[in-house]
């Protein structure tokens, strides 16, 4: 009886691509072992999650127990869900206050994080708002008149809203930072510390990142209370990513890229350049070569950036040329090739860039075009990462980066689940290329509106009443998997 | 010491391997040495802390009969009259020692608690002492559970206790990337394999990216070519605005007001704040990697703020410059950056400036342009603060020097190495300083290079004028490019005569004279500029930046008004003379107590702090050496004596004018040893001697000159 709700879920098609130990090396817990509320579990399963990844397994129970957490895990191993799940678990939908603040360094990452919150929490009746620069500030202020439970944003805008008391953080017990090393890098740190003054003195902090080139001890001592440190890395690079360099002259780079395009079996690719000017120029060349290509960098209008980001995540274009704006955190599962058209300066940038492929333990390829001047940087970064990057072979084994079946690669917003936006209402769905219409999460139109009043009836429609109404979600002792596993953490 | 503990406690180290092993012998000897009351108290505190944290852990007590009891330490009394009284819970006998009865017998006497008086305690061993003051958690506990730390503590404090405790290794600290990679510090170079295109392949776009520049609309092109359309809707990501709210209009107004308020405020120098508030700041010095991805590895807060103001390469480089080759703000000298940071509102001036510069043709003597530049410079100079403290003497000297050769400091700013130097004509105001001012002017560049002149970054006196600009940390690129940006007009006051052709040629001869002397140097130096730039290029590795980052002080404190400066300098002069007399023959700079910061010679009013030897030959060419800008050098100049130096980096000592006889001998005035060269000729001060002072000053130039030559060779 209690298990009925599970049979009602719209679980997406299983992603059958092979995965590495980076995400499989777990203790065998399930999400049900965390005693999460049922609405949250429903969201998790409907997002296609099956089992927690190692970082999720470690961080979720600790975070739910209320401890401060400082965690590092490799790129694309599920860090976002590792803080979103406890956040959603802790937020009370009936309390009309901002109860969690999630800070990220870039606007695109804010959008993405918010989307994960909404996907996982779609049954929780929680409203999650994004606030970043580049958007209409007035609109954001107006949005805050409505109930907002989780605020995702970039530090500058959040500080502005908090300092004007537009965003009331005084009862926000949960403070989350993704890409914590960047957030605690000097330029952001000053803003973060100001924001912290608007939070209640006793609050829980969750800090996540894949890289910590410098120690964040100072911040830990000052702002964290007995942080529980999680380090799941005994090496820096992902197991699933194969790295190569191609030593070229500067003017050969385009030629080399063209060769790569013709030889590689690219599902989606991200190409990084070191200047905004080069980003635009390269993207132009790529379209000239006959490949669909978007570009993005910080000097563009935010509306265009959002559009590019959204469409690329939806898989509308094959290649994205970008600056380091999209180096951190961006999660596009279909990307299997990352090309560093220009080589980065720092090891963490390199690590984050190549981490755009090989998401969630899948396979990927990272190719670095190195010119004469870059070579010392290559040595330096190799040294810092403790790896040696090999020269690109004439033929690259497809099994290193191409999945046999990528039909089930998750896409953030399956078309069928798009909300009733103007675009959908106008019936524009039909105009989209058919290969993109793979429903991933659910086939039922999803209402993203924050209002709970609209939300409840819809849920009842979606899930038969007896499944939905059954008892409080906390009474989950009967879940079968519970019996086998003693709860591994008793916090 | 408590602080140490508490600090570590916060780090959450469950540490346990503290070996506090003290030899019982040390105990008996403790009476032998004298300890201050405070030391004793500190040790007592430590012992108390140790005992307090050990309560409830296992302890082994050896009593004077040699019987060892182990049990849980329930209580202890360090204040006991005869040592530490100990209470063990659940005691066991583990060694019967010299006791006559056997263990079982002893054990049968034991009850739940065993009280051992202080006088009976011979040794107390504490096991598993945890100083962290908190429970071990997670993995740390696992790691450490295997290690059993043994702490043998003594009853009376002795000096040994503190040492090992503070030396404890900090374990389980959060790992940085390199900790994880376990990278060795040696960067491994290796041969890279060249990429070769396939033979049969033809590729007609063999060009680098920047060869074509057309802006394009990515959405239009992709839609046209590939049929890509957009479905973006912000409500996928964020909440909806409730426009049906009855108060909507009111809220809208209110929101508008707040939004305007927020957006109208400045960004206080933070790029991210500025970005979020939609303020366009000039961030061309930092790329998007710096902004969104890379973690700034520098440790200093001041630099961070300054970095934003550092802008070294032109925003749109025509050719791609790899990041490694760009003059990175990271590498910029703090002095350069700080002087830029002092410019308050450069943006407001830019557009105007640019327009003016565009209007003015190359080489045009546009008065209005110069006026603009001048105004800006003036504004800058008023706002500029030297970011460190300057010794009194230097201030005095600065003042004095500007009196003597008023244009010299500005001249120093004006060096433009990219263009051939041309002199101006300003009649020397002072016969003594004529050489210096002329030469100084000689390095000035009057050619208005309108294209290059960028007033965005008005040069700073200090940074341009003195050598520490070229500290080892600053790349040459940075310096040069920055110098190029210095506006030609920057250094001319409105009253300063504009150079006309006549004056040019007249003075140009003067310069040529000097030029001859420097030809060699110039050939050696990379820069195309005059003496100063040669000097500059050669200089970088001689001086390290030594300033204190004190940006609070006004320039006024550094450049006192004329009157006080003279007064001060006279006082110093007297002081110096007297001290010198009191210890004739000693190495002056070292021994003179009345001198501050090693600048004993300053007060003579020479523009050059280095003057060393009284020497009357004034008529030789002096390469321009900007006066008024040696403070850092002076501070680190360890009196020309490396051994006596205060640990400052040695390189600049090689360039120290006090250094050795080389340059002395080169002086035309004959081998007159510097007065501080004690072995050769003790300096005999002549109080109040004007002639001495003058000669002195001249000699100083000469020394300088010689010094440059010595270096350039």
UniProtKB/TrEMBL annotation, chain A:
Q: Which region ranges are annotated with the description Disordered?
A: 1-24, 464-491
Keyword Transport among UniProt keywords: yes
EC number(s) stated in the UniProt entry for this protein: 3.6.4.13
> Per the database record, which ranges form the DEAD-box RNA helicase Q domain?
29-57
Superkingdom in the source lineage: Eukaryota
Kindly indicate where the leader peptide sits in this chain.
Answer: none
Q: Which reaction does it catalyse?
A: ATP + H2O = ADP + phosphate + H(+)
Record's GO cellular component terms:
cytoplasmic stress granule; P-body
Gene Ontology terms describing biological process: mRNA processing; mRNA transport; regulation of translation
What sequence ranges are listed for the domain Helicase ATP-binding? 60-230
Q: Which CDD domains match?
A: DEADc_DDX6, SF2_C_DEAD
Keyword DNA repair carried by entry: no
Gene Ontology MF: a single term: ATP binding
What this protein is called in its record is ATP-dependent RNA helicase DHH1
**Major location (coarse):** cytoplasm
TM region(s), chain numbering: none
Motif, Q motif: chain positions: 29-57
The record ties this protein, via Pfam families, to: DEAD, Helicase_C
Domain Helicase C-terminal residues, every copy: 240-400
Q: Which organism is it from?
A: Lachancea thermotolerans (strain ATCC 56472 / CBS 6340 / NRRL Y-8284) (Yeast)
UniProt xrefs under SUPFAM superfamilies: P-loop containing nucleoside triphosphate hydrolases
User: Where are the compositionally biased (Basic and acidic residues) regions?
Assistant: 1-20
**How would you classify this enzyme at the top EC level?**
hydrolase
Compositionally biased intervals (Polar residues): 472-491
Give the UniProt subcellular location, in the record's own words: Cytoplasm, P-body
Keywords assigned by UniProt, alphabetized: ATP-binding, Cytoplasm, Helicase, Hydrolase, mRNA processing, mRNA transport, Nucleotide-binding, RNA-binding, Translation regulation, Transport
Q: Which family does it belong to?
A: Belongs to the DEAD box helicase family. DDX6/DHH1 subfamily.
TrEMBL record, chain B:
Q: TM spans, by residue?
A: none
What GO terms fall under cellular component here?
cytoplasmic stress granule
Query: Which stretches make up the LsmAD domain?
Result: 226-298
Task: Give a Pfam family name.
Answer: LsmAD
- Record region (Disordered): 1-31, 312-479, 638-670, 688-713
Biased composition annotated in UniProt, kind: Basic residues: 704-713
Q: Name one GO biological process term.
A: stress granule assembly
Q: Where is the sequence biased in composition, kind Polar residues?
A: 464-476, 691-703
Query: Residue span of the signal peptide, if any?
Result: none
User: What are the Pro residues biased-composition ranges?
Assistant: 418-430
Q: Name one GO molecular function term.
A: mRNA binding
Q: Where is the composition biased (Low complexity)?
A: 13-27, 431-440
Composition skew (Basic and acidic residues), residue ranges = 372-402
Identification of the protein by name: KLTH0B03850p
Source organism: Lachancea thermotolerans (strain ATCC 56472 / CBS 6340 / NRRL Y-8284)
């Amino acid at each position: 009886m209690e298990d009925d709700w599970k049979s009602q879920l719209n679980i997406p098609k299983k992603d059958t691509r092979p995965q590495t130990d980076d995400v499989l090396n777990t203790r065998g817990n399930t999400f049900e072992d965390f005693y999460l509320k049922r609405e949250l579990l429903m969201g998790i399963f409907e997002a296609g999650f099956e089992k927690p990844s190692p970082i999720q397994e470690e961080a979720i129970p600790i975070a739910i127990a209320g401890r401060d957490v400082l965690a590092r895990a490799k790129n694309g191993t599920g860090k976002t869900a590792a803080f979103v799940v406890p956040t959603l678990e802790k937020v009370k939908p009936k309390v009309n206050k901002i109860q969690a603040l999630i800070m990220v360094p870039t606007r695109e990452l804010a959008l993405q994080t918010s989307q994960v919150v909404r996907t996982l929490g779609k049954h929780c009746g929680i409203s999650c708002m994004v606030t970043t620069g580049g958007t209409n500030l007035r609109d954001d202020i107006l949005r805050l008149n409505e109930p907002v439970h989780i605020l995702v944003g970039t530090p500058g805008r959040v500080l502005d809203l908090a300092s004007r008391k537009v965003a009331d953080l005084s009862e926000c017990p949960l403070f989350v930072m993704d890409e914590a090393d960047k957030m605690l890098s000097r330029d952001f740190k000053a803003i973060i510390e100001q924001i912290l003054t608007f939070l209640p003195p006793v609050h829980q902090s969750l800090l996540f990142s894949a890289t910590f080139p410098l120690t964040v001890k100072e911040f830990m001592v000052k702002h964290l209370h007995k942080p529980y440190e999680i380090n799941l890395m005994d090496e820096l690079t992902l197991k699933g990513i194969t790295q190569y360099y191609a030593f070229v002259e500067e003017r050969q780079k385009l030629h080399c890229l063209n060769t790569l395009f013709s030889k590689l079996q690219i599902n989606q690719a991200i190409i990084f350049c070191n200047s905004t000017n080069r980003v635009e120029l390269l993207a132009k060349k790529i379209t000239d070569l006959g490949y669909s290509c978007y570009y993005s960098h910080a000097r563009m209008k935010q509306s265009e950036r959002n559009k590019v980001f959204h469409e690329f995540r939806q898989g509308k274009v094959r290649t994205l040329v970008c600056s380091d704006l999209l180096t951190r955190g961006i999660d596009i599962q279909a990307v299997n090739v990352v090309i560093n058209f220009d080589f980065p300066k720092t090891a963490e940038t390199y690590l984050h860039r190549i981490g755009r492929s090989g998401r969630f333990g899948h396979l990927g390829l990272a190719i670095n075009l190195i010119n004469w001047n870059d070579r010392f940087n290559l040595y330096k970064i190799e040294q810092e990462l403790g790896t040696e990057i090999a020269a690109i072979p004439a033929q690259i084994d497809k099994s290193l980066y191409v999945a046999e079946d990528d039909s089930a690669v998750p896409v953030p917003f399956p078309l069928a689940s798009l909300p009733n936006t103007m675009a959908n209402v106008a019936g524009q769905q039909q105009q989209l290329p058919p290969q993109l219409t793979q429903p991933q999460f659910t086939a039922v139109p999803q209402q993203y509106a924050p209002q709970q009043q609209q939300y409840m009836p819809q849920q009842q429609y979606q899930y038969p009443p007896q499944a939905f109404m059954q008892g409080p979600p906390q009474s989950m002792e009967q879940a079968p998997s519970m019996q086998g596993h003693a709860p591994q953490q008793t916090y | 010491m408590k602080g140490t503990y508490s600090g570590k406690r916060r780090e959450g180290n469950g540490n346990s391997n503290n070996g506090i092993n003290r030899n019982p012998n040390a105990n008996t000897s403790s009476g032998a040495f004298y300890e201050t009351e405070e030391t004793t108290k500190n040790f007592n505190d430590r012992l108390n802390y140790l005992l307090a944290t050990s309560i409830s852990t296992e302890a082994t007590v050896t009593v004077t009969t040699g019987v060892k009891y182990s049990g849980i330490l329930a209580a202890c009394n360090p204040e006991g009259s005869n040592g530490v009284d100990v209470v063990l819970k659940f005691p066991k006998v583990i060694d019967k020692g010299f006791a006559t009865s056997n263990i079982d017998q002893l054990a049968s006497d034991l009850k739940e608690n065993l009280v051992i008086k202080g006088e009976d305690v011979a040794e107390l061993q504490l096991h598993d002492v945890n100083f962290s003051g908190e429970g071990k958690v997670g993995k740390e506990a696992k790691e450490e559970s295997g290690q059993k730390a043994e702490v043998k503590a003594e009853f009376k404090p002795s000096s040994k206790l503190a040492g090992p405790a503070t030396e404890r290794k900090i374990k389980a600290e959060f790992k940085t990337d390199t900790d994880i990679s376990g990278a060795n510090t040696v960067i491994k170079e290796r041969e890279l394999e060249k990429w070769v295109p396939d033979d049969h392949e033809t590729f007609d776009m063999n060009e680098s990216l920047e060869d074509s520049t057309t802006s394009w609309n990515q959405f239009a092109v992709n839609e046209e070519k590939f049929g890509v359309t957009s479905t973006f809707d912000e409500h996928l990501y964020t909440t909806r605005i409730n426009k049906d709210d009855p108060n909507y209009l009111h809220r809208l107004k209110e929101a508008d007001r707040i939004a305007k308020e927020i957006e109208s405020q400045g960004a206080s120098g933070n790029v991210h704040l500025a970005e979020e508030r939609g303020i366009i700041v000039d961030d061309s010095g930092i790329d998007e990697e710096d902004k969104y991805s890379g973690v700034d590895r520098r440790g200093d807060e001041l630099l961070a703020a300054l970095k934003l103001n550092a802008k070294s390469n032109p925003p749109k480089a025509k050719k791609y410059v790899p990041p490694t080759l760009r003059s990175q703000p990271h590498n910029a000298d703090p002095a350069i950056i700080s002087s830029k940071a002092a410019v308050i509102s450069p943006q407001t001036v830019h557009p105007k400036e640019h327009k003016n510069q565009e209007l003015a043709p190359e080489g045009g003597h546009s008065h209005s342009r110069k006026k603009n530049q001048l105004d800006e410079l003036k504004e800058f100079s008023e706002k500029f603060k030297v970011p460190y403290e300057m010794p009194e003497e230097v201030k005095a000297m600065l003042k004095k020097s500007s009196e003597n050769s008023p244009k010299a400091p500005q001249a120093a700013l004006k060096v433009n190495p990219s263009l051939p130097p041309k002199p101006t004509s300003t009649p020397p105001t002072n016969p003594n300083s004529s050489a210096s001012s002329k030469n100084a002017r000689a390095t000035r560049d009057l050619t208005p290079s309108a294209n290059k002149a960028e007033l965005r970054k008005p040069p700073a006196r200090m940074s341009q004028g003195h050598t520490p600009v070229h500290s080892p940390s600053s790349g040459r690129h940075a310096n040069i490019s920055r110098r190029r940006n210095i506006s030609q007009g920057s250094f001319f006051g409105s009253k300063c005569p504009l150079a006309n052709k006549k004056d040019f040629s007249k003075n140009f001869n003067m310069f040529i004279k000097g030029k001859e002397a420097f030809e060699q140097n110039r050939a050696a130096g990379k820069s195309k500029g005059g003496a100063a730039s040669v000097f500059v290029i050669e200089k970088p590795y001689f001086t390290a930046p030594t300033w204190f980052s004190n940006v609070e002080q006004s320039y006024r404190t550094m450049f006192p008004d004329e009157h006080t400066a003279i007064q001060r300098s006279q006082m110093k002069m007297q002081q110096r003379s007297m001290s010198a007399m009191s210890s004739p023959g000693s190495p002056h700079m070292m021994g003179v107590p009345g001198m501050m910061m090693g600048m004993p010679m300053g007060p003579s009013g020479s523009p050059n702090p280095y003057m060393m030897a009284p020497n009357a030959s004034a008529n030789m060419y002096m390469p321009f050496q900007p006066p008024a800008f040696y403070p850092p050098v002076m501070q680190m100049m360890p009196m020309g004596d490396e051994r006596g130096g205060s640990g400052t980096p040695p390189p600049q000592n090689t360039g120290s004018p006090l250094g050795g006889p080389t340059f002395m001998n080169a002086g035309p005035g004959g081998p007159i040893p510097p007065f501080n060269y004690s072995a050769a000729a003790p300096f005999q001060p002549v109080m109040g001697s004007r002639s001495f002072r003058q000669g002195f000053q001249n000699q100083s130039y000469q020394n300088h000159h010689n010094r440059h030559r010595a270096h350039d060779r």
